[in-house]
Amino acid sequence: MNPTGLRLRAVLLLCFVSSTACNMFAFTEEPSDRVGKGDGYCSRILRAQSNRREENDDFRLRVEGDPESYQPGNTYRVTVTASRSAYFRGFTLIALKEGAEGDSDEDYAGNFQIIDEEETQFMTNCPPAVTESTPRRRTSIQVFWTAPPSGSGCIYLKASIVQKRIIYFQDEGPLTKRMCEKESLYGNITEKPLLDCCACGTAKYRVTFFGNWSEKIHPKDYPRRANHWSAIIGSSHSKNYVLWEYGGFASDGVKQVAELGSPVKMEEEIRQKGDDVLTVIKMKAQWPAWQPLNVRAAPSAEFSVDRTRHLMSFLTMLGPSPDWNVGLSAEDLCTKECGWAQKVVQDLIPWDAGTDSGVSYESPNKVTEPQDKIRPLTSLDHPQSPFYDPEGGAITPVARVMVERIARKGEQCNIVPDNVDDIVADIAQEEKEEDDTPETCIYSNWSPWSACSSATCDKGKRMRQRMLKAQLDLSVPCPHTQDFEPCMGPGCSDEDASTCMMSEWITWSPCSASCGLGLRSRERYVKQFPEDGSICTMPTEETEDCVVNEECTPSSCLVTEWAEWDLCSATCGLGMKRRERMVKMPPEDGSICGAEVLEVEKCMMPECAIDCIMSEWTEWSECNKSCGKGHTIRTRMVMMEPQFGGNPCPESIQRKKCKVRKCSRGQSNGDDKKRRKEQRDKRRSKLDGAEITSEHPGCKMRPWSSWTECTKLCGGGIQERLMTVKQRFKTSQLSSCKDRKEIRACNVHPC
Predict the structure, then answer these.
(1) Measured distance CA(710)–CA(358) in Å, rounded
(2) d(Cα 394, Cα 70) in Å, to the nearest integer?
(3) Report for 249-263, 513-527, 726-740: range of highest mean pLDDT
(4) Is residue 742 scored above 60 in pLDDT?
(5) Which residues fall within 8 angstroms of residue 86, CB to CB, at 6 or more apart?
(6) Cα 412-413-418 angle, rounded to 5 deg
(7) Signal peptide span per the entry (predicted)?
């Protein structure tokens, strides 16, 4: 090749890597038939990349969430970043099917979407690729990438970087990401476990179901009144049993769950499988479908797995719907390293059971004849579907399930050591204690116990707390909001080393009967064997009777879970509240359903306000003057003080002016004064009930003392005051010149 051709190839290579590289050279473009896409421009540059490779760990291509596989049609955020000390001026990003050369459009996987046009753009001469819009120093870029449709297989996301005049390519390492299609969620059949389980012992798991099917997330035609999740039913089982699978046909049990939300038939089918099933998984229905977690906890259940029965499946109906469900099918909890999976989290999309041909939530029943295979719903099923998207985008998940390992039992044989030591973990839930909390104190649920303050065998303590939401009666004290109990670090015990150390009891299993008398059991584990080598004799399993719907007859009917309580009928004081449930399946014999569908109970709101209550007014008293201007009074008593914010008490004494007659001038002699004084004393004695004696002119008296304290706080008491003789004149008589005392009533209101 001549030198001109070599220079042309070099510049074309730089132009593919980055538009920035093109700006480094003065370049006259060749005719389009030589450099256009039709002449394999992208493929020639890809081949040039593979021949020149300079590795550098300062740059990284990352898909948000770091998934190992992609969901067909899902959109992912793709970023190219530099380390803290590095930067780059230009870049190229491309998605290519595994094994493809880039010679045709079919070789490229998915589609990129520009997020920021000032940062990124599609490459002019190679449209499937993305490059920078303007040359400048940068430390990161990001674009969206929509995964290709189902059946595309594995793909490569590749990036190339320009830093100054150095070009970095990488077919392996931080600038390349390989992702393969995830078959289990959108494939035509359920992914089958390929290997037998090689794990040892048993493991116990807790499965928690988080429904996020709500009007906010799925607004189209959302059924506001009757939205719910049916009771969850499933099991841990062997590979010889299939509850449901994509590409398979729904059993009668699956059909009843899918169309009626009834788990009864499904549970019968599970229990008939004998040794192929280890644990039946059951959780209550949820009405309505979504509530915040601080209002209603997510439902959960516990189950066990072993080497033979290491798969877990469940399903629940999306209601109302024709025959739509979500669930897991044959989720394998046994790892290829011969251990037990620590945690599995799956987002769930709805699937069609193939038994009803309805297209919307509340479509009328329309039996599918012949029955179709189970398949996942898609956004292109029908324009009337609530999940319809004319662009064929992925359906937003309606639920998430989390499966967490909470304990292992027996000898383990992991090839790779497990980093969680839960073989002797105390996995018991809180025992239900007798609750003496007053009904007028409304609390949240107790939080989980905190970690022990001691990490050794020294004694410590742990704490749990709750929140006081309302105190309906302020006169009734509410108990504490924090609770403490003694504890020690893991593996420690108050017991002597020669005794067995047992875990707490695990919660009771579901009742074995769906109707009538059955059995339930619970387990615990030996956490530490005696040091003297003796055998633990303490029981590790307990069984007791349980009853589900005592009156089980052909006339029994299936009802939904109770709805939430209505608001209290009273705004204060005592009222009533009610809740309802619906009949899901009438009695088999055609009789009327005898189950209660309405419950009513009392409810207590904050006390109603009570206003102050007063007695009637007394008659007006006599005028306090025998002549001239005076005043008269009347009184009333407080019969009941105000309570709970009632209106305060009004005045209890009223006064008004009075005038008996004009006083005559010159009436100043001693006899008149004495007569007026005697009249005043007589009136005071009548008004206050006091025992007084007329003052003799020959005495000089001290002023009245202050009133004494009332002898009673309520119900009527007495106060008194004194006037003592200060001086007796020689002309006065001893009997008429003496101390005086007055008494009066006080605190006359009722107790």
Answers:
(1) 85
(2) 12
(3) 249-263
(4) yes
(5) 58, 59, 139, 163
(6) 75
(7) 1-22
